[in-house]
Amino acid sequence: MSSFRNHRIIIASLFLPTTAVLGESNPPTPDIPAKSPPAQSNPTARIPNGTPIPPFRHQPSKSSGANAPLKSIVEDLKSRATTPLSTPQSEPVNPFAKFLSFASPQPNGTPSSASGSPSHPPGLPSLDRSFTFSSRPRKFQTTHQDVQHTARLQRKQSRSSSRRPGDVYPANAIEGNHAWHTAPNSHCNGGLKNAVDSIKDHLTHTLWVGTLGNSTDNFGPDLRTSINLRMRQMCSSVPVWIPDAEFESCYDEFCHQVLWPCLHYAVPDAPKTKLFYESASFKQYMAVNKRFADVIIDNYREGDIIWVNDYHLMLLPALLRANPKLINAPVGFFLHVAFPSSEIFRCLSVRDSLLRGVLAADLVGFQTAGYARHFRQTVSRILALEALPKGIQVEGIPGSTSGVNGAPSKLELKGRFVDVGVFPMGIDVGALREKKREPDVSYWVQLLRQRYAGMKMIVGRDKLDEIQGVRHKIEAFERFLKKHPEYQGQVVLIQVALQTTESNELAGGVADVVARVNAAYSTLTYQPVVFLHTQEVTFSQYLALLTVADAFLVTSLREGMALRTHEFVECQEGRHRPLILSEFTGSYSYSGFRSCIAINPYDTRGTANAIYQALTMSDEDAVSRWEDLHNHVVTQTAQAFVTSFLTRCLRANTEHTAQTDLSMVPVVDMARVLPRYKHSSRRLLLFDFEGAVWIRDMSRAGLLAPFEPQKEVLELFKRLADDARNEVWLLSGLPVKGVLDKIASAVPSVGIVAENGCFIKTRETKKTPAKWIDMVPNLNFTWKSPCIEILNYFTERTPGSFLEEREASIVWRFWTGPIDDCSDRQWARRQAAEAQNHIFDSLGERYGLRIIPGSSSFLVLPNNISRSTAVGAILHPGGPAYSPRSGMALASVNGRGDVSDDASFVFAVGGDEKLLRRLNELDNAETASTSRKGTDAKWKLDPKDVVSVLAQFANVN
Q1: Of 75, 221, 258, 803, which has fewest CB within 10 angstroms of its CB?
Q2: Claim to verify: residue 758 and residue 804 sit in the same structural domain
């Protein structure tokens, strides 16, 4: 984590965590600091321990007293909307006007009510009812705008109203008086902000880039300059100024009517929807991404790490990479929502542009392994690129040819490897624990227990759109009440509805089913479904709900990481009640969350049974399940998410940029190397066999032909090994039997590494004979049978392919024809990519396997075994026989035990970049690459010239 102290992190997200609000703040300050609860106007309003009642909106009924439970729950619901009849009409049309109401002067000189409701109790200060808290002192900010579902502000409505400044802002604020203050942005990605804030003591330099989230067409140049300056100085933020109409088309049309449904498996009926074929709003999407790129480029400085977030900015990495200033800058992209299968994503008419935009990053991160797998498969099938388990191999390809109106894109991607990783998001557990201990939460916990005494409470928090499955939840609850009439009047479902647009609420179809359930089962003292909009619930009240809940119900039809479930688990530390979780959430894919009660939200009967199971579960079962859930929550934290993503991004960029362009690497200068070799008393010579010393015939006939080593090559090795000052090692991926054992028999004084480090043959000396050492003696090889079965399936589908089974590894030759990029070869590469993904996903993690890809084949072998680790064992004091991995303890490997320990000259030739990079750390090493690609080696060497170079070494007296 300390490595980030030397880097500034540029965080690009559509909305800034802090926005600018016109008007003076009260008190006038750039931030809204958290306040201690002031004394109440009513001195008798105290909870039993004497603590004054916190100043929240919903106070105990005066008729019943502060300490007595309500006689009727209906009294507690009089001021609330009992059914979600879309967005309340009493709210201002502009969704951002609530921030203005906090600071706009009223005729009596006091701030207006935060609620804007005349029923607000007099004498009690208003609070912002969003779940956003000031960062000084920092309080926990809930993820109510779930990172998977960034709030969809009602941009269209606010645009129409913003064209009449007098309806929203005081006229003088626009024309001359530029008084303004900052406020928490209710539209920002709350989960991301929490995660960054959780390590701000270590992440000392950050710069947020995003929009303010409100209408800005009426902001004049002077006002924008003022906002730019103060936001940069006080909030470490740089606003991106976007015309209202452009933003509306990008955000409301393309992001939420095209991208969002596609990413969440909700593609509209294609014949009725032209957006997937005629996406005119994609022009505005490109323009918004271009504005973000311009701002980042202007503010970028050497050493910055650029972190691009979410589906709103999928083109941004390529736009940044196209600028020469940022061509080698660390760029990471993280998708906070789900990623669908290729069959869904291929429906997008602009699919190529989006994928290539993302692939310009060094690292592409996802919430779950399933989403990462979908992305790799989509790239493989749509762009025909090589998709490997750890990322995408991008060969130098031009930009998209399916841009707007078929015009080719100007973006180009150079050949590079793009890492694809899984980074599960979490919550700031420590901050949440601090918030739980506040008196406000304790008060509301006690009040809720009084008002719902003797009843079971099921709590949920979702948006009201189709994807969140709220309608499915209510219907399942209705079936539960019908099937178990003994629970009628005894169980209440409290549903907190996140802010969304009226059209989305209507599409969700929640209002009618809630009305039906309440009409069927309500009594004078009981209402089965209580609906609360987010602005009606403070964060303390929400934590209290999670604390007293008897179950938390999530019925999402498709969702990334459901962080509200993490909050529920942490709040249940004292009660250990169960979590009912949809199988279609990202959280469920992790083993720790398999202890929930899993449901298929489309199965109404099954969900109803899950509710009954949760309410009747024994304490022992509930505690056991909660412990598994809690262990996962405290491990998968917000801190771990940020540090792991940024560390991997920095490492990926280092690997990408470290390799020098091949044209800049000189050919081996024997005039400089030979004198060093000649005057060295101890020499270590490491040579790759295939691809360097031996140029293999890659045709099908050549691959299947029996191996016969070349006599001139064997003679050359014998001459080198006969020199007492030399220690010669041959590095190979070939098997021992039938291939390398022939070389071992012909030149026993040469050490051999077989199957990429799985076996090592020691050098024969006068004192000790040569022996083969098994470097993987304790590994489980039961993986080979299912792996062969998988590869046999792909062999049947790929003409000309065949399988090579070795003792500790497997090779699949998927192409043996000409190197021309014909359709058959493209098909073979796609099949190879799918086979690799299938093996990695089904066997890789379980058995600890890794895959080494090649241009016409790939190798499957145990993890943590490579030529580099084999050479490490050779360099180990005493040689590989003393390596702990071998499990053996021979007296000596090379007969002297001192050549590799203190070699004054090391010469390595091969194409393994990891090995060459490792040997470069030795002061006395000369490394030559035969890979014909960008390399870290000191020299380059054409494979056909390797034998002649070795002959020059052998001729030195």
Answers
A1: 221
A2: no
Give the C-alpha separation, 425 to 159, whole Å.
33
Q: pLDDT per residue over 229-265, tens digit each?
A: 999 999 999 999 999 999 999 998 899 888 988 998 8
pLDDT level of residue 75 (50, 70, 90 thresholds): very low
Asked whether 94 and 162 are in contact (CB, 8 A), the reply is yes
pLDDT at 498 over 60: yes
Q: Domain of 626: which CATH number?
A: 3.40.50.2000
Q: How many domains does one find in the chain?
A: 4
Quickly list DSSP for 535-597: GGS-HHHHHHHHHH-SEEEE--SSBS--HHHHHHHHHTTTT---EEEETTBSGGGSGGGGGSE
Going by their DSSP bridges, the two strands 551-554 and 363-366 should be labelled as unpaired
Tokens of 3: 């490595």
445 in any annotated domain: yes
DSSP type of residue 351: H
Are both 485 and 558 inside the same structural domain? yes
Residue type, 323: N
What's the pLDDT at 627? 93
Q: Do residues 330 and 419 touch, judged by C-beta distance below 8 A?
A: no
Do 517 and 448 lie in one domain? The reply is yes
pLDDT category at 609 given cuts 50, 70, 90 is very high
More confident residue, 914 or 124: 914
Predicted confidence (pLDDT) at residue 35 exceeds the cutoff of 80? no
879 pLDDT higher than 80: no
Q: Are residues 505 and 456 in the same domain?
A: yes
**Mapping DSSP to helix (H, G, I), strand (E, B) and coil, where does residue 84 land?**
coil
Kindly state whether residues 409 and 439 are assigned to the same domain.
Answer: no
By the 10 Å C-beta count (0-12 exposed, 13-18 middle, 19+ buried), 330 is classed as buried
> Residue 559: CB partners within 8 Å, gap ≥ 6?
146, 148, 149, 264, 338, 467, 468, 582, 584, 585, 586
Domain end marker among 393, 422, 451: 422
567 and 474 assigned to the same domain: yes
* Alpha-helical regions (H) of 384-491: 429-436, 439-451, 470-483
Same domain, 516 and 538: yes
From 422, 443, 464, the end of a domain falls on 422
Distance from first CA to last CA of the chain, Å, rounded?
53
Task: Give the residue with greater pLDDT, 102 vs 752.
Answer: 752
> Within 203-303, where are the H helices?
221-235, 244-248, 260-263, 282-299
Rounded CA separation 166/458 (Å): 44
Residue 743's CATH number? 3.40.50.1000
Residues spanned by the domain of 470: 429-636
Q: Is the Cα dihedral 737, 743, 749, 755 positive or negative?
A: negative
Band (pLDDT 50/70/90 cuts) for residue 813 is: very high
Note whether 846 and 905 are same-domain residues.
no
Q: CB of 896 within 8 A of CB of 681?
A: no
Asked, for residue 348, whether it belongs to a domain, the answer is yes
pLDDT value at residue 329: 94
